[in-house]
Structure formats: C-alpha cells, structure tokens
C-alpha cells in the first residue's frame, strides 16, 4: 500500500517555483480567495523563485446557490458536475507535482463525493497548556459518502465501509501521530464509529490491524466516547480516529473543550490517501460559505490567513511563516481589530490590512542573508 508522506515540520529548500492550487466556491468564496492570495503573496515575497497559484477555472456551488438553481434534478446534475470537475482539478495538480490546494467552502454533497474518491482524511491537532489531541476524521467512507437514488417521495442513500480504507486511515493516523509526538509516547488509538450497525466487521478489522501494528485500538460508539470525555476528560496524547457522523459534530465542541479557538478562526487540512494523489493536502477554513455575507466585506479572514501561513511554511519554502502570522494576529487581538462576528467593527479588508502592517515576514528558505553574502565575497 502506498502511503502519503506526513508534512515536514519545516519548509524544505526548493530549487524551483512552488505551485499552489486554489479552488473557489460561491458565497464569500471570491473574497476569501482574494485574502488567501494577498497574504500568501506577502509571506512568500522573499522566496528566491517566487510562488505560483493555479486557480481552478470553475466557480463551484455553495448549497445556497444550488437551491437557487431550481428542482432536485437540476441540483443533482450540478452537484455531480462540481464534484467531477474538482476531482479532475485535484488529480491534475497532483500529477504536476503540486503539494497543496487551498479551497474555499463549497456544497457539502459535491465535496464528500470528491473526498470519497480521493480517500481523504481531515487532520486537526488540538492543544492547550497540558494536553494535545490529534483528531483524524475518516472522510473516505461511511454515511456521508455514497450515492442517492430518488423515487417519488423517497431518497435511498447507499454507502460502504471497506477494510482497505479503514486500514489506510488508521495507518496514516498512526504515522501522523508519531510525527507530531516523536518521543513515541502514544499508548492507544481511540476509534469513534457507529460500529454496532456493521455486523461486527469493523470490530474484526480493527482487532486484526491492532495485532499487525502492535498498538492498542479501542473501538467505541460515539456516545461512549462522549461519556468518557465528560467523565474523565482528555488525557494527553490522545489519538482519535473518527467517522464523520461523530467528528463533524464534535469538532467544534473539542475546540471549545481545549479552549483552542473559535470555529470561525480555524483552518484544517485534508490529506488525500489515494495512491495516485501523492499525499496532496487540501487546506480549508472550518467556517462555511456564509452566503448571507457575500459582497459585504464582513467575512472573518482569520482562518484564511492561518491557512495561507501553513501553506507558505509547509509547501512554499518559508519557515517561520506560521509563527510570524500568529504573532501578528495576537497584536490585532490586543488592539481589538476584528470583524463583527467576533464583536468587532472592522471590515475584512481592514483586518487583513492591519495584519499585513503588523507582519514581520521571515526570510524564505534559500534566500541569502547579509552574513552569507559577506562570506561569499
């Protein structure tokens, strides 16, 4: 089985121009994309070869824009078109060596069709002063994936679980956990799935894989995981591999329990496990398309700013981009520079401008410093 590479903690020295993919949905997507391009451009300005952005030519639908298109048949057709186009875009980018794509929010049904086909997992490392939790969300199978069959007054949804995909997800999760916690302190994997509905198949796959990998795997119903979290809290170095049915709802709650951040400020990554995708990573904001804010210059840009920093550092040869960005965001918070959703009075543009004014852009990998120039004379 081909395994995608875990993102390196720093940025490698690049000898060519990195190319970053960009996919834009409706609603506030165009505004969010502009923020991403602007911030990434500033963060990578000192890159010795520059950075190119390859934008998908299609403007993908949000759920709101789809509903405005008409009846169910039309929505189904456009959903399939969006999914097919975005899958082709991601595969094309991966084939050409692109490591990362930033995507604004799009219609969930189209998105999950692509996640199923590309075998995608969502990864988020949550931390506070005393604990860390790695959440790996299985987006490649289960009740969020599958196909619909319509008849008058009824929709039948067909989905699947497979041993192959389950093994790929758990293997990647363990690999990623050992990357995040290199001292080896990881005693078990917690799986949160509705396994009681699968005739014991998921139990058997998990047990077999635990023996093969030499690690304890505890498979729990989602309500049991919740009860344990309430009763016992979150022990340090918790690795949770979860189906969408639990993780989609609980992600925002886990953010709250850790005191990490608000959903509107958070970005996450989706890693493609399909062998042909070379571990392509898709970055996104946790917040949705916010169609009601489109064109008003009011969308919160913080999650997009953070995504740009991650892309700059991990995929565009700019070490220190995340630290510099977080420092600038703290400065803005201290000054009360924030959008209305966070209780502020500033526009999207005002927040981004203030961020860029406060940003101390680090040197890019491979950029000569004064000392190396002097040494070479």
Automatic annotation (TrEMBL):
SUPFAM superfamilies: Isocitrate/Isopropylmalate dehydrogenase-like
UniProt cross-references to SMART domains, sorted A to Z: Iso_dh (SM01329)
Domain named Isopropylmalate dehydrogenase-like: residues: 19-355
Keywords for the protein's UniProt record, in alphabetical order: Manganese, Metal-binding, NAD, Oxidoreductase
Cofactor requirements of the protein: Mn(2+); Mg(2+)
Pfam family, one: Iso_dh
Single annotated GO MF: oxidoreductase activity
Record PANTHER family: D-MALATE DEHYDROGENASE [DECARBOXYLATING] (PTHR43275)
Record's protein name: Isocitrate dehydrogenase
